């Protein structure tokens, strides 16, 4: 895992130091909008992330407090990843990227984008509540 080197005091540059990698954003997308939460789940995403890159980005996200891992209650050699409050705070950013991308994307608009178009604030609130509930569940932490 590469160490983050901050290039300037600019808030955008600071944010990009953590989030300026497409794989980081796609992992966050999967954690926010899907039920994906394990290494294997992320490997099965359409974008086909390489195993070494996935392992590195998960370590990066965890080391910087965006996600936490815990041992799966069903399988002791499997880790489950969840967003932390810091990660949950990124939901509006990811939502805006999704809305912008769907505006210029030639693919069919996803249901979540339609839902955001009708009630963006309510949808963000529902996502935050759902993900916060995962944080507060009784799944043991691996920290």
Automatic annotation (TrEMBL):
Pfam families associated with the record: HxlR (PF01638)
Positions of the HTH hxlR-type domain: 10-109
InterPro entries: HTH_HxlR (IPR002577), WH-like_DNA-bd_sf (IPR036388), WH_DNA-bd_sf (IPR036390)
Protein origin, superkingdom: Bacteria
Alphabetically ordered keywords of this record: DNA-binding, Transcription, Transcription regulation
Name the UniProt record assigns to this protein: Helix-turn-helix transcriptional regulator
The organism of origin for this protein: Mucilaginibacter aquariorum
